[in-house]
């Protein structure tokens, strides 16, 4: 699926997305999940192409053999496979979707959500010129978004913050480095304090807590950890080490709803605010992010924005829309609340595989992969 606008980070420039979807059929309902891994193993160890064989040879067979009734049972079923959290999340989240439909309740309610409206921000990739970035910021603010996040890297940071702050001194502004700085840059990173940012996201190594804790002591600006947080234990370690003051929860990065809820709960207990990060998802993954963002401690605007920011035509209906107040209404219908446009998915699909349970007890259960 081609993006409406190219998205550039310190990892590189993305112009289109190769998407892997999971469809779970169970007792008359269909749940959908999306693997949010990228085309290359840049953000983490996984990619779209590595997720496919893990799902085919490990996770789906294990799910179809298991006697599970809930999405919360999936981590135990998948425990024989180390890592591969984005592949696991795609399948587990589809099970949660199916479960919520069987229970005839909205997915967000099944997860324990309390918010019926979520606050939205946007993540802006790097632009060729400051002028072009300013045009993008102006358009997103006019659309009502409550927080602007700028992608940055060494040599592509202070000039941008200065320009945006000079024109919009009061907006909620943050930046995301995607692990592109090092501790030797701490003096430069201290200069970020002058721009009164909500946070600087993952400035140092993708797998680090210790050096972030050293840096946080030097900064007035709050550090937010993203890539470093893979599970509840990581969140607790980061909090104990004072490596950050904010945490970004991404469903794919932590392995699905079950672990995302565990991370949410420990941050709630420790008084660390969280928000939901995005991975250029289609409407399937975006609808999961909406459900997750309804949980109590998602008190900061996330990267959950309108379908039209990314796709000329999404694969769900209705498309995700953002109000003029910069919010999304959480759906009140059973499941994710958005119907998958199966005809569009089939038109875009270049590879698919279907799996059935092989025993009489589970004969009405099946899983389909589409890429």
The CATH topology of the largest domain comes to: TIM Barrel
Return residue spans where pLDDT drops below 50 for at least 5 consecutive residues. Answer: none
How many whole angstroms does the radius of gyration measure?
Answer: 20 Å
What structural class do helix, strand and pairing data support? alpha/beta
Structural summary, described in words:
The chain is α/β, with parallel strands linked by helices and 371 residues long. Strands 6-7-8-9-10-11-12 form a 7-stranded parallel beta sheet. It is built from 13 helices and 17 strands. Strand 7, helix 6 (158-167) and strand 8 (173-176) form a beta-alpha-beta unit. The protein has helices at residues 48-65, 74-77, 85-102, 107-111, 130-142, 158-167, 186-190, 210-218, 232-240, 251-254, 257-270, 283-293, 342-348, and strands at 2-9, 12-16, 20-26, 29-35, 117-119, 122-124, 148-151, 173-176, 200-201, 223-225, 246-249, 274-276, 316-317, 327-329, 339-340, 352-356, 365-370. Helix 1 (48-65) crosses helix 3 (85-102), helix 5 (130-142) crosses helix 6 and helix 9 (232-240) runs parallel beside helix 11. The model has no long low-confidence stretch (mean pLDDT 95). It folds into 2 domains: 2-104 and 338-370, Enolase-like, N-terminal domain (Enolase-like, domain 1); 110-329, TIM Barrel (Alpha-Beta Barrel). It is globular and about 60 Å long.
């Amino acid at each position: 699926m081609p993006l409406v606008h190219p998205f550039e980070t310190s990892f590189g420039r993305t112009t289109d997305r190769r998407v892997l979807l999971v469809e779970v059929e169970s007792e008359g309902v269909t749940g959908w999940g999306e693997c949010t891994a990228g085309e290359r193993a840049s953000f983490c160890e996984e990619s779209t192409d590595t997720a496919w064989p893990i799902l085919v040879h490990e996770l789906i067979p294990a799910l179809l053999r298991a006697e599970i009734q809930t999405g919360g049972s999936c981590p135990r079923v998948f425990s024989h496979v180390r890592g591969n959290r984005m592949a696991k999340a795609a399948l587990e989240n589809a099970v949660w979707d199916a479960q919520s439909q069987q229970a005839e309740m909205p997915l967000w309610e099944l997860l324990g959500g309390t918010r019926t409206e979520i606050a939205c921000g946007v993540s802006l990739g790097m632009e060729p010129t400051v002028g072009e970035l300013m045009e993008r910021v102006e358009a997103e603010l006019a659309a009502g978004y409550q927080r602007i996040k700028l992608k940055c890297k060494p040599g592509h940071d202070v000039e941008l913050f200065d320009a945006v702050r000079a024109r919009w001194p009061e907006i909620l502004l943050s930046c995301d480095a995607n692990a592109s700085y090092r501790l030797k840059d701490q003096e430069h990173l201290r200069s970020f304090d002058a721009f009164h940012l909500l946070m600087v996201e993952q400035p140092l190594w993708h797998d680090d807590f210790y050096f972030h804790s050293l840096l946080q002591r030097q900064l007035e600006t709050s550090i937010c950890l993203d890539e470093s947080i893979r599970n509840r234990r990581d969140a607790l370690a980061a909090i104990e080490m004072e490596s950050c003051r904010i945490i970004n929860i991404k469903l794919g990065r932590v392995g699905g709803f079950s672990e995302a809820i565990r991370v949410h709960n420990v941050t709630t207990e420790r008084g660390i605010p969280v928000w939901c990060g995005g991975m250029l998802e289609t409407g399937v993954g975006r609808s999961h992010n909406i459900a997750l963002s309804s949980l109590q401690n998602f008190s900061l605007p996330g990267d959950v924005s309108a379908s039209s920011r990314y796709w000329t035509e999404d694969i769900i209906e209705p498309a995700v829309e953002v109000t003029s107040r910069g919010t999304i209404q959480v759906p009140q219908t059973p499941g994710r609340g958005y119907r998958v446009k199966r005809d569009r998915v089939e038109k875009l699909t270049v590879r698919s595989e279907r799996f059935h349970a092989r025993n009489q007890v589970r004969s009405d259960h099946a899983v389909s992969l589409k890429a």
